[in-house]
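debug: dumping io for the single-chain case to check the tokenizer round-trip. Nothing else runs in this session.
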Amino acid sequence: MIYVWAVAIYLAFLIAVSIYKSRQIKDQDDFMVAGRNVTATFLVATLVCTWIGSGSLFGGAGRAFREGFSALWMSAGAWVGIAIVYFLAHRVRRIAKYTVPDILETRYTPAARLLGSLAIIIAYLTIASYQFKGGGRILAILIPGFDPVVGAAITCGLVVLYTVAAGMLSIVTLDLINGIMITLGVLIAAPLVLGAAGGWGELTTTLPDTHFTVVGRTGIAQALGLFFPTFFLLLGESGMYQKFMGAKDAMTARRAVIGMIIGVIVVETVLDATAIFGAGLYWGDPAYRAADGTFNTAASETILLQVARHNLPMVFGILLLIGGVAIVFSTANTFLMIPSTNVARDIYQRFINPDASQSRIIAIQRLMIVLLAIVAFVASTFFESILDMALYAYTMVGAAVTPALLAAFLWRRVTQFGGTLSVAAGVVTSLLFAALNQIGVESLPLGFVTMPLDYEYAIYPAATASILGLIIGSLMTPPSPEEKWKPFWTE
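debug: decoded output
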């Protein structure tokens, strides 16, 4: 029970601080962008915590268990994306909007704003839903026999309480502590798990040779299928941009990107390495195999929690479990915060009640946090694999939002029609891919090639449709007037 009490005390601390910070909420700036006064240290911590979620803790770690170091292709997409974002962060902060759809309407059209909001809401509720699923898995490991679905419901309720209280202000405040717990947990666990697996020599004997190659067993096509969704998502990640808008100034936002890339590279690499070390312990365990001898994907995705509970000294196991809880909560609250902001600001305030008071908008957003959390919880039942959920969500934002968002800052010739068509093409193609997958279609013939409909390949048709829509739509229409592009280029 000591593990359960440790996690419960940590969660009680997070919620207590959030309720305390709620007293500082006075207007939209406080609730949506933490008062636009976030320092570089807090910004780095919250950016890293936003990115390191259940997709890494479960999906990425599970793939590392099954396939080895080639799983890092998924993380590498984010690393490259962050490097590019370095050159945009200060310009995003200077525009001083609240959301990415704000930017899409400023550069393109109200339709682009609505479509971008739809894409973000669908994707971010998917991401929030697998945070709940991850929380359920943590409780099931802490309490043998506990129903993971009930655990997901409990996680959902606690995240809602945490987020509703003080919004982005509480998220930014507590992510510094969450970030420290995550980093300490994985850095201490990695060498201990490697030692428990018998060291590097024993590990290379136990696991297949492909675990230690660049593209692994599945080859370059699937490796890039992991790389591009995270790459495109990171470039258009609304939570990151909304947090840039909360920075105290433009240069603070830019400096924080340097800390973010270092933090993400270190934590994700060590997370995947620890999962691979854990594979050395459990490679022959039938609990990780299906009846036909293939991997049980859901079981392999819990590898980090299993080693924390059963293969580490109690103190370090508790530290890693608390790090896992911090990962789930620090990501779930952001990915409820962003779509609720989209509904409150980009739909309600923009199209329904433009004259709404500050208190009214905050009340609407708090209500939407609750309602959207319920939708996200229900959505978690449609997928078995957290990795599939992550790749679909990444594709939705990466294809629908990122090309048009980047073009706003990088291509003066992009037009209102081209940008709007790009967002629409990304949304429709992503939805169509998911619909075909859900009804059981395994592949789609495309001329001389056949494209599998596994989620590792979703980014290819969705991003292609979005980019073609952006380019062709822009070249077919007259250039945008200067007042549309100038705010994005003035230094």
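debug: round-trip ok. Strands lie at 443-446, 449-452.
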